[in-house]
Design a protein that fits this description.
Mean pLDDT: 82
CATH topology of one domain: MetI-like fold
Helix content: over 70%
Distance between the termini: 10 Å
CATH architecture of one domain: Orthogonal Bundle
CATH class of one domain: Mainly Alpha
Strand order of the largest sheet: 1-2
Structural class: mainly alpha
């Protein structure tokens, strides 16, 4: 297992270098950084001096390796708009995004497991057909449309839910502000979390259903029925355990990508997280902030994938032994 861990760490480092290279390469197509720093009124002579001082005339590889060297020290550049280190700006917005993803994850897990198991156990029931029909609709509707519909119904028409912002938050550690310690914070996070969960929930329900139906046809499940074991124990202890093995792999990756999917949800609900910040940075051509965002999101994705693979190896001893022998 240790050898596999070392291998995965080296793979993660290689992926991060690739992400940093792509992120750094595209910044040249986002606009002239001097225009954002000094405006149009500065003479060409002063611009040339600044360009030389900032190293913008250096070869691409020289600039890239200088960027990587600074990044390894935690310096991803300085935001043109905030006049602060880009990483600090992102870390201030990160708690809002992580709490939104956490809320959506709780909804996905809390609903997909019982719904997926039920539709596998009772595939021909009316309720199962309704659930599967709604899952198809859920997959087909984009998240921004779901968010707009929820705002119209629950905020505009019924007036029972707030439509934007985080509401009242509480400082807990450093710059970390949480919604989960105030009633107003809970009220503000419900709609965005449900909208974000609508992306993955239908897929998880269908995935759990298909895996569960396959497991229910296996010999050990039939043997458990023959022994007279209670059905609920067969479904939720024996069958569900093996059903969740592929779900862990797919689910871990998808939940990691939800950090990137928050862009549309945060924009519609004006949620002050990383996604909303990224769109504002694009509008302002805040190149360092854009590059830093891509690297941070890529880092979260790589770490999530690595942890999911390790968890999968711990849950499934067969996989672990195969990896150790590789």
């Amino acid at each position: 297992m240790f050898a596999y861990l070392v291998k995965r760490v080296f793979q993660a480092i290689a992926v991060m270098f690739a992400i940093s290279l792509i992120a750094f390469a595209i910044q040249g197509n986002l606009g002239d950084p001097l225009r954002e720093l000094v405006g149009q009124s500065v003479s060409e002579e002063v611009r040339a001096q600044l360009r030389e001082r900032m190293g913008l005339n250096d070869p691409f590889l020289t600039q890239y390796f200088r960027f990587v060297s600074n990044a390894l020290q935690g310096d991803l550049g300085t935001s043109y708009f905030f006049k602060e280190p880009a990483l600090d700006v992102i870390l201030k917005k990160l708690p809002a995004t992580l709490e939104l993803v956490f809320g959506a994850t709780v909804i996905i897990i809390g609903l997909s497991v019982p719904l997926g198991v039920y539709t596998a156990i009772r595939p021909g029931s009316i309720l199962s057909r309704m659930i599967m029909g709604l899952s198809i609709i859920g997959i087909s509707i984009p998240v921004f449309l779901t968010a707009i519909m929820m705002i119209f119904i629950f905020s505009v028409e019924l007036g029972v839910m707030p439509s934007f912002g985080r509401g009242e938050v509480v400082h807990i550690i450093g710059s970390w502000e949480t919604n989960f310690l105030t009633a107003d914070g809970w009220a503000h996070i419900i709609l965005p979390s449900v909208a974000l969960a609508s992306i993955m929930l239908p897929m998880f329900v269908r995935l759990i259903r298909s895996e569960m139906m396959e497991v229910l046809q296996s010999e050990y499940v039939r043997f458990a029925h023959a022994k007279g074991i209670q059905p609920w124990r067969i479904y939720f202890v024996h069958a569900l355990k093996n059903t969740l093995l592929p779900v862990i792999t797919v689910g871990g990756v998808q939940i990691g990508t939800m950090v990137a999917y928050t862009i549309l949800t945060e924009t519609v609900f004006q949620w002050p997280g990383m996604g909303f910040m990224f769109l504002e940075a694009v509008n302002r051509v805040d190149t360092p902030l854009i590059v830093a965002y891509l690297i941070v999101v890529g880092f979260i994705f790589v770490v999530t994938n690595t942890l999911v693979d390790l968890i999968y190896g711990l849950v499934n001893p067969t996989i672990k032994l195969a990896r150790m022998g590789a």
